[in-house]
Amino acid sequence: MEVDNSTDVMQALAMIGAVITRGVPTSDLLAKLQEFAKVYHHPHANEHGQTFISVKTNQATPGLVGFSAEPLPLHTDRASLPEPPNLLINVVRERGPANQGIPQLYNFQQFLDICDLEDLEQLNRSSILNSLTGDKQAILFRNEEVLKCRFRIDTPWTTDLTRDLREKLRHSMDDNTFHLTELRNNDGYVILNDMWLHGRTQIGRTGTIRVVERTLLRINPQLRSHIPSLTK
Ligand SMILES: O=C(O)CCC(=O)C(=O)O
Ligand SMILES: [Fe+2]
Questions:
Q1: What is the DSSP string of 125-187?
Q2: In the chain, what are the domain boundaries?
């Protein structure tokens, strides 16, 4: 679903929990979204809550892969927190070279849909570990009456999914990931960070100019149960 103004964002978000925005600045999106969500200040963010993600380092330092030229496997943001911010806005400010740093989106529901009862039991027991901080969190969890997910596999995060489930997830990701090749400068996406995973392909060499402006928010708890969420 695509929108080119901030007024339609809510309606679009309320349908499947993800929306592509065309030429809508973060400030316009925030003007609407702040009616029901509060900006979450990421440690890397400026005083307004925006993080400008660009190629800053030669090497993918654990925990800072976003700031390297490396690909970022599909993930949710702030996965180590007990209750991560549940709304994510990423706006492409500088697109970078063709076919590099392409944003990707994946709906975790696609995976749940192919999980049988045994898989689900296994999934309910699975967690991800941040080896830097020692934080361990369940991949699938319930909060505010809503079924949510978190996911991360780039270092320092590891997941204890069984081999079978990892394979299943990988196949589903291969088949159902949206590659947002058509995003131009000032296009972006707004997604529920507890339902949709996001990532990007390899950016290329260090020195490549590519900038994504990220803002994370927390949706008012009373409202979260009225918009889409994972089901099983
Ligand atoms: O570079 C991108 O497209 C996304 C970056 C990202 O998701 C992150 O740093 O967490
Ligand atoms: Fe991210």
A1: H-EEEETTT--EEESEEEETTEEEE----STTEEE---HHHHHHHHHHHHHH-EE-TT--TT-
A2: 2-220
- Which ligand minimizes its atom distance to the CA of 95? 1
Cα 161 from chain centroid (whole Å): 19
Does the predicted TM-score (pTM) go above 0.85?
Answer: yes
In percent, how much of the chain has pLDDT > 90?
Answer: 83
CA of 215 to the centre of ligand 2 (A): 10
CATH of domain 2-220: 3.60.130.10
Determine whether the shortest distance from the Cβ of 154 to ligand 1 is under 6 A.
no
For residue 58, what pLDDT is reported? 77
- pLDDT of residue 206 exceeding 80, the answer is no
Residue nearest to atom 9 of ligand 1 (CA): 66
Model pLDDT for residues 21-80, shown as the tens digit of each residue: 999 999 999 999 999 999 999 999 999 999 999 999 878 888 899 999 999 999 999 999
Smallest CA separation from ligand 1 atom 8, residue = 66
Residue 212 Cβ < 6 Å to ligand 1 = yes
**Ligand 2 centre distance from Cα of residue 42 (Å):** 11
Angle at 211 (CA atoms; ends 34, 178), nearest 5 degrees: 75
CA-to-CA distance for 207 and 222, rounded, in angstroms? Answer: 44
In three-state secondary structure terms, 191 is strand
